[in-house]
Amino acid sequence: MKKSKYSTKQRELLIKYLSEHIDEQVSTYQIANELQNSKISLSAIYRNLSELEKEGLVKRCIKANSREVYYQYIASDECQNSIHLTCRMCGKSFHMDSNDAEILLLSVKLNNGFTIDKPLSTLYGICKDCSEQNDID
Ligand SMILES: [Zn+2]
Ligand SMILES: [Zn+2]
Q1: CA 66 to centroid of ligand 1, rounded, Å
Q2: Looking at residue 5, what is its pLDDT?
Q3: Hey, which residues does 93 pair with through a beta bridge?
Q4: 134: CA distance to ligand 2 center in Å?
Q5: From the CA of 95, which ligand is nearest?
Q6: Would residue 89 be called left, alpha or beta, if left means φ above 0 and alpha means ψ between -120 and 50 degrees?
Q7: Rounded to two decimals, what is the model's pTM?
Q8: Residue 114 C-alpha to ligand 1 middle, in angstroms?
Q9: Ligand 2 center–CA 123 separation, angstroms
Q10: Distance between Cα 39 and ligand 2 center (Å)
């Protein structure tokens, strides 16, 4: 059997970690910290993350007030078929109701001629829990 150049032990460790944190945005620093006992170097983490990004399995996210780069694992079928809603306060991600997403995609396409790439798209805002806690209307 031909061995894929991507199937390394380090990649497996990284995917295992990410798949335990689906729909969370984790920073490279966090990942390195969690995997420090697994003998995976920071450069290997960077390299593997950028390969996973090219393959469309993770997406890179930027957070307000942070210079760090965050990654979100979007390999599951559900993630691949969803538009993510990410809370700016608690950092959690949610899947937009699929009917709402279809309506949004269709109307953007009809009115703007633009096809939104679902798994790569995130809308930022404030989630229900956080808005209740903070009395935001
Ligand atoms: Zn998801
Ligand atoms: Zn929230």
Answers
A1: 22
A2: 56
A3: 86
A4: 10
A5: 1
A6: alpha
A7: 0.75
A8: 22
A9: 13
A10: 34
- Spatial separation of the C-alpha atoms in residues 107 and 114, rounded to whole Å: 9
CA distance 117 to 79: 12
- Say how far apart CA 11 and CA 6 lie, in whole Å: 7
Q: Give the domains, in start order, of the chain with CATH numbers.
A: 8-75 (1.10.10.10), 77-137 (3.30.1490.190)
What ligand has the least distance to the C-alpha of 79?
1
Exposure letters 72-82 (e unless 16+ CB within 10 A, then b): bbbbeeebeeb
Ligand having the closest approach to the CA of 118: 1
- Which residues of 17-75 form beta strands (DSSP E)? 26-27, 58-62, 69-73
From first to last of the 137 residues of the chain, give the pLDDT tens digit: 444 555 688 899 999 999 999 888 899 989 999 998 888 888 899 999 999 999 999 998 877 777 888 999 999 899 999 999 998 888 888 999 999 999 999 999 999 999 999 888 999 999 999 999 876 55
pLDDT for 17: 94
Helix (H) and strand (E) counts for the chain? 6, 6
How far does the centroid of ligand 1 lie from the alpha carbon of residue 102, in Å? 16
